[in-house]
Design goal:
The chain has 262 residues and is mainly alpha-helical. Helix content is 56%, strand content 3%. It is built from 11 helices and 3 strands; from the N terminus they run E-E-E-H-H-H-H-H-H-H-H-H-H-H. The longest helix is centred in the C-terminal third of the chain and has 26 residues. The chain is globular. The protein binds coenzyme A. Coenzyme A (COA) binds next to helix 10.
């Protein structure tokens, strides 16, 4: 009997991220034990996504973003979701953390992805039509409004000025990495001032602009938020477990449906 042809599921997966043998683990070709002795976690996040170690300046920016997004209080949607799950079950902390991650969306914590896409779109429009930065920003802002959407990366529930934005932009400028991404989002902030209202560039908008200038794709803007926020979510779940009673969360609800029948 002739040997049967391998079906697709028998083919080896291909991956360029990590490899290992009986005694060694390599991350993007770097010995993980050497990285453990010399690198920072931000270095390895950069390495995993870019296949090279960052410069000192790139490391500072990645670290600054991870710190900026690490936590924003128990009332932020991701932390609140994690705590609601934690209050009902102490047997699955991973479920509580995962619930927090699942609450990351286009309005909370994940706006950087769409923001970076709009930065790329706006800068392409600027090049294609030889527009000024201000005109390209105004066009993209108007197009967003026409779709009935809010501009991702602008506005904040708590902050009238997001304190994290200036730091990220300062660090980018100090390292000579403040480029068109930062210039574009600043122009959008300016363009929104009159037709909408003064809306601060929030941390999602700031990290999208900085990461655009560092050459990252839009997806990474959401992923770095998730990577950083998991640190805060684990602390939120730990506090819920250690400080609070199970089932302590009672959400006030006013019933305004049909009265009881019969
Ligand atoms: C973050 C956010 C939800 C805060 O919302 P909020 O507290 O309801 O904002 P405000 O009450 O100050 O908004 C008042 C007006 O400004 C407008 N506005 C707020 N953010 C806007 C934005 N990013 N783009 C355009 N208009 C915006 C709203 O349309 C609102 O008008 P409306 O009530 O007639 O719709 C909101 O700014 C937003 O959706 N931003 C985009 C998503 C984002 O960047 N999320 C990450 C947050 S860190």
């Amino acid at each position: 009997m002739s040997a049967s042809k391998p079906t697709p599921e028998w083919q080896p997966w291909k991956s360029a991220i990590s490899d290992s043998d009986e005694t060694t683990l390599w991350l993007r070709g770097h010995d993980a034990t050497a990285l453990m002795r010399t690198a920072s976690f931000a270095d390895v996040v950069f390495l995993l996504h870019r296949s090279r170690l960052p410069t000192a300046h790139e490391r500072r920016l990645i670290d600054a973003i991870l710190i900026a997004v690490s936590d924003h209080g128990p009332g932020s949607p991701s932390a609140a979701a994690a705590r609601v799950v934690a209050t009902g079950s102490r047997l699955a902390p991973e479920a509580a953390v995962a619930a927090g991650v699942l609450a990351i969306g286009d309005s909370h914590a994940g706006a950087g992805l769409a923001c970076m896409q709009l930065i790329a779109e706006g800068l392409q429009l600027k090049r294609d039509e030889n527009l000024s930065m201000a005109d390209a920003a105004a066009r993209i802002l108007a197009a967003t409004k026409e779709r009935g959407a809010r501009f991702p990366g602008l506005g904040h529930r708590t902050h009238s000025t997001d304190p994290r934005t200036a730091v990220l932009f300062d660090l980018a400028r100090e390292g000579g990495a403040e480029g068109d991404g930062v210039a574009f989002i600043r122009a959008v902030e300016e363009a929104a001032r009159r037709p909408v209202k003064p809306l601060p560039i929030n941390v999602d908008g700031a990290l999208a602009a900085v990461l655009y200038d560092l050459g990252f794709p839009p997806l990474f803007a959401k992923f770095i938020f998730i990577i950083g926020r998991v640190a805060g979510l684990t602390a939120q779940v730990t506090e819920e477990y250690t400080r609070e009673k199970p089932m302590r969360i009672r959400i006030p609800v006013v019933y305004d449906g049909d009265p009881p029948k019969g």
